[in-house]
Amino acid sequence: MGETSINFAKASSAALQDQQLRGNFRRAMDGLMSKRAVQFADTAEWNGVRTLGASVRLRALSKLPELLEKLEANCTKNGIQVHWASTIDEANAIVLSIMQRVNAKLVVKGKSMVSEEMHLNAFLEKHGIESLESDLGEYIVQLDEAMPSHIIMPAIHMNTKQIAHLFKQKIKEAEYTEDVAQLTDLARRVLRKKFATADVGISGVNMAVAETGTLCLVENEGNGRMSTTVPPVHIAVMGLEKVVEKLEDVPPVISLLTRSATAQPITTYVNMISSPRKEGEKDGPNEIHLVILDNGRSGIYADEELRNTLRCIRCGACMNHCPVYTKVGGHAYQAPYPGPIGSILMPQVEGLEKRGELPHACTMCNACVEICPVKIPIVEIMGRLRSEAVHPGDAVRGAGSHASKAEAMVWKGWSMTYASPLAYQFATALLAKLGNAAPTSLPLLKEWTNVRAKPRFANRTLHALAREKGIPDV
Amino acid sequence: MSESRNAILGKLRAGRDAHPLTPPESDFAVLRNKRWDGAERLERIKRMMEAVHTEFLETTEADWPADVQAFLKAQGTRNLLFGPATEAGGRLSAEWAEGGPELIPYADRVETFKERLFDGIDAGITTTLGAIADTGSLIVWPTPEEPRLMSLVPHMHLALLRADALYDTFWQAMTENRWADGMPTNALLISGPSKTADIEQTLAYGVHGPKRLVVVIIR
Ligand code: SF4
């Protein structure tokens, strides 16, 4: 992965011009927000389960290395083979070596954000293995050769008409229809054949239970169950933060996850997998592999404040409620994780050189913090990353990479002016007289006035007005 | 890649030890206090599951095999996949009357049965370990006698639920029955037929799993 900076500003201003896209997002997000609110209408219950959920995640983080060892021991005892990967290259290599050993040609995938982080599909295609997304939203996005625009609803940026055209164009047996039931049924027919013939199934993990060596997956479609049951080999990929200590920690987290994500009391399926096919069992994979991925997470973990990023249960609620995300959509972030969580996670995973712009994609309105089911202080971390980006340090990769001499000088001048009453009076008096004459083409002013009117300076300062009213200066 | 293993764990340990974290106590009272009385539980389960298109068939211990057969016949179902070695399976084959639908045992390993399973089966029937009032969910633990795909691949899934095997919450079901002492290969909660809202937030049923879920309540 190169270190070239990703241009969020440019992509988002393009997205803002796209009325169709904005309409698609606005409708979807409004629906999600109001439905979620109904799920958590009982405030006492919400507070109780949220506090419990946050404690479960914090307890897991407090014992993270021990729990991962325990998870590994229990999975191994159950017959699940555990692999560790420091980087996405390592994780991809592990997956590939399993595939090559079983001579896999076709892979069916359940939805997994970590596999998006790994760019696994592209990697497998490069090695001659067909990797097919089976979650309907992911399938649509894959047919469109695009990226998911939301971590829960990957194809939320498209409307039915666009999907109807896409299916007609990309699926051989497709007749043009805008009937959602028929489109869904078409995908069912196409993908069932693939489930039946796939050599390997890949899934993510919503939670891994250290106590029992159990992988938990939540889903509505059944494609996750298909991918983890029908093919002879199942490979699960997870970020190392996904572990919880006890089995009883699962219910509160699932309850928060499904209600926050799609406003359902529970998903259609909660799938708990603890071992490959045992002696005498008639179906299920013969092999299960669990790949535990670090990819920068251990670095995030080392910092007391940034560590909170790892509490995330990937519910996507912060996206749905974010005034920036809901306007520009997921693609502008050009990242597997968009929205508020993406804006704090991506810079930490991929470095501030590349992702330094994202912490600025935030109005600091705090909406995400208020609805985050595990109480992540997203906005504080956003502020911290802004500051890391301009101060050399070792907490985050690429710290200091966005430092600019001009900006530093402006702030220095600003603080000197504000520290001295004389300098302050002089500066404000000067702006009152000459501010309005400043041309909009001045460097910093230009960016501001590009899309906004130039602020008008009052011709008398506030101090002067106050003095007139008899209010003393000090 | 044990090098990576040790590097990752070493880094995590160093990070944690430099800044240990004291988590707040986990207070499960919010789950413990979720209670419904006997009759309310079943009503709630029905209401919640019906809201996501689950169907219900009320019957009795004596009549359920005949009632299931009559129901499937009326639906025009061609065949029913069942586990012959379970007690329920024994009753189905003993009490199944002439005239269809055809009873198909899941008796072989999936490798020899896959084509038939994916292509020619209309319905599958399984037992359950009960249901959960809080969320309207069935508890299903597949076994060698009732394999995992029975509740997934057939277009219709029938699930036998005893009207007295009800729990308040998922948490209650797993703690009371001490699931943590030994999890099965696969444990499931099933709360409706397969569904999706991935096309413009419009709900559609039967995307990859069963299109219909019929809960057979046995009183
Ligand atoms: S940061 Fe919070 S709200 Fe956002 S996805 Fe993670 S858990 Fe959900």
Automatic annotation (TrEMBL), chain A:
Any coiled-coil regions, as ranges: none
PROSITE patterns assigned to the protein according to its UniProt record, in alphabetical order: 4FE4S_FER_1 (PS00198), 4FE4S_FER_2 (PS51379)
GO BP terms: lactate metabolic process
Keywords, sorted A to Z: 4Fe-4S, Electron transport, Iron, Iron-sulfur, Metal-binding, Plasmid, Repeat, Transport
Signal peptide: none
Pfam families on file: Fer4_8 (PF13183), LUD_dom (PF02589), LutB_C (PF11870)
Domain 4Fe-4S ferredoxin-type: 303-324, 354-382
A Gene Ontology molecular function term of the record: 4 iron, 4 sulfur cluster binding
UniProt name for this protein: Iron-sulfur cluster-binding protein
Source species: Azospirillum brasilense
UniProtKB/TrEMBL annotation, chain B:
Record key words, sorted: Plasmid
Keyword Methyltransferase appears in the UniProt entry: no
InterPro entries for the chain: FTHF_cligase-like_sf (IPR024185), LUD_dom (IPR003741), NagB/RpiA_transferase-like (IPR037171)
Ranges where the LUD domain occurs: 42-218
This protein's record includes keyword Transport: no
Stated name of the protein: Lactate utilization protein
